[in-house]
Amino acid sequence: MMENTEEKNPLTIRVNILTKLWTGDIDGKNSERRLTGIIGSIRWWMEALVRGLDGFACDPTDTDSKSLYRKCEFDSSTFKKKFNETGSYRKAFEESLKSICPVCQIFGCGGLSSAFRWVKKEEDNSSFTLELIPLRPVSQELWWLLDKTLHIITTYGAVGGKITQKPYPNSDINYGIVEFAYNFSNLHQKKLSDIKTWIKDIGGRQAVNSSDLPNFKYFWFIPGFHLKKDEINKFLRLDDNGNKINTNLEDDEEDFYEFLRGNIGESKKIFSFPGKSIEIDEYSPWKKLHELFYSTIEIERLWGYVRDEKDVNKVESILSRLTRKEIIKEKIIIGVDLIEQL
Ligand SMILES: [Zn+2]
């Protein structure tokens, strides 16, 4: 019987840090916040994936009660009503969960705790373990989502802050590439088609997602490839000093580039990792071990995201102009296709 795993033993995820990792505060501290930073990043990727699967993921930063995308809130009055009707705590809880998006079902929201207690253990410069202690039964579908999110981050993505930073021209500094090593194989047996059916009814709000929020369908990835700083500037239509190249673009073109460039407090939408070497700490005794054991993870990668299919085509054509067309054609993976391989 696997419908709801009652497994209460902690699950261990090994987090191997393959580059520098920034999970600090804006004021520059980068020690205590590591766990929150990592969890925040996992959540961000999962939100995008859920939207890419045509499910609903709320915007946890949106607190406007009139907004369609506002963060979820566990409705305790529905819970009480259902409990009075059925007399079953479990049934009432499951009913109330239906109005909570899948991401909040895992990470929690107002009135609902996280499905797990996340405990960070055993740490050295280049790795630590995350223990997930389930606080309530976790459905196979939610395990599937967590499993695939961690896989996507390891293989294609990045976590933490500073991942757009390339401080010096052509700098080879990488931030945020981690490998999540875990085995959830006995926790779910769901297929993509099961998840697509399930996700439609979760979280309510008719699965409306804002086109301004990251949607995995419109992510693009080029593993084993990167762009240098000057190429990224060209991609964003910026000069060498980072100033906008002044040309008369149509309004929607200008809007497209504004979106790609980001703003204060809002990230650029292109992320490049040269991945030449493992830069945890030149003097770390673990460095050599990492090179030996984790060489299967390709650090070099380029990825980004846009808001719709039309913009994906634009990105492909800009990239083709910047570098050899064949490379882009052969190597680029669009989120909508990647989903089908999950
Ligand atoms: Zn939510």
TrEMBL record:
It comes from the Bacteria. This is Type III-B CRISPR module RAMP protein Cmr1. NCBIfam families: cas_TM1795_cmr1. Pfam families: RAMPs. GO terms for biological process: defense response to virus. Residues 17-118 form the CRISPR type III-associated protein domain. Keywords: Antiviral defense. It comes from Anoxybacter fermentans.
